[in-house]
Amino acid sequence: MMTAAATKAKAICSVSSGVYDYSVTQTAPSTWNYDYLVENGCAPNHQPLLTDFYVPYFADAGIANITVPDATLWSYAIQPNNNLFNLAGAGVIDFHVTWQTQVFDSQGNLVMQNGLGYYGANGFTFTSGFAPVKGPFAIQQTAWNGGLYNQSSVTFGDPSIPGSPDTISALNAVAAPEPAFAWLLAAGVLGMAAFKLSRRNFSRAA
Questions:
Q1: What gap in Å lies between CA 42 and CA 45, rounded to an integer?
Q2: Which H helix or E strand runs over 78?
Q3: What are the distances in angstroms from CA 118 to CA 44, 123, 142, 158, 179?
Q4: Where does residue 165 fall: left (phi above 0), alpha (psi -120 to 50 degrees), or beta otherwise?
Q5: Residues 112-127: pLDDT tens digits?
Q6: Could you tell me which of 116, 137, 125, 111 has the C-alpha nearest to residue 9?
Q7: Measured between alpha carbons, how far is 192 from 76 in angstroms, rounded to an integer?
Q8: Of 66, 38, 5, 7, which Cα lies nearest the Cα of 137?
Q9: Are 57 and 137 in contact, with CB atoms under 8 Å apart?
């Protein structure tokens, strides 16, 4: 079993956590391949557990061929009505951790908790017919809270996503002059409420 400080995949000792462009390549005149690197940074005390990460889903982006690097750790689901990013017409692709990690509770007992600890891997991929633009992602972590991993938070950022017409229109509607998208602060507050309302149980990937 895993501990909260190690995972089955290659780990990257980083103080930050996030989703980054590993590669975005054009493989045919109308086909782009997107590959994301996901990191859950190391922490000296009470390692947070990564449970999900999200990228926007627009129906007109022609997203297909979605893969995860390890089906024993991850599943994915398209949620077209999840308005986590507060973008008009957008849902999400939810890459969900199915692994159970062994952690210590406040009494010193080993218990199983959904999520991955110190972690880094690429291979979260899909194809699209559109070239990249900068757009948001979100990661969901469960953190230590006085003896139990039950305090969740959502962090936002901006890797590449397919620049379909609906994507461009939605991003232009909320665009700010700073590349980090100041509007994400407001979207994060709204997204947390939407997230709590829209959480579902996912089956373990085969």
A1: 9
A2: strand 74-79
A3: 10, 17, 13, 22, 28
A4: alpha
A5: 878 888 888 999 999 9
A6: 116
A7: 20
A8: 38
A9: no
